[in-house]
Amino acid sequence: GGYLEQFLSGRIGVKLLPRGNRAERVRGGGAGIQAVYTPTGVGTPVADGKESKKSGGRECLLEYGIVADLALVRAWRADPEGNLVYRLTARNFNPLVATASKMTVVEAEELLPDYIEPEHVMTPSVYVQRLVAVEDPVKYIEQRTVRERQA
To answer: pTM for this structure?
Structure first.
């Protein structure tokens, strides 16, 4: 079955993690920061099983940096060295993810023949190990309904 069925049957679990905490964990991993304390999630199921500590008079949770073995990144443009530029919301997580992995593979919509001006580079090539061109530039949006909508 699919992931939803596996989750509902209890075969796989899900850890709750606020989006900002996830971004900070990935950013920390990319910057070599082992862990950070954050007040986000205190007093909610996010805190279950996590170490906490008072900091600045507020209770905070310990969140560990994330470094992946492989990162798959989508960029708008890439130059021959692998310097990247993103468009719109692709800039939210792709630059963070590119820094926080042992191997970053980039799928670029446009492979430029010349170099990107340094002041326009959003992810430097030092974080990119592999670069491929987008075969199909159409971005499909999947919409899945698992139950009937109420009127």
So the answer is: 0.76
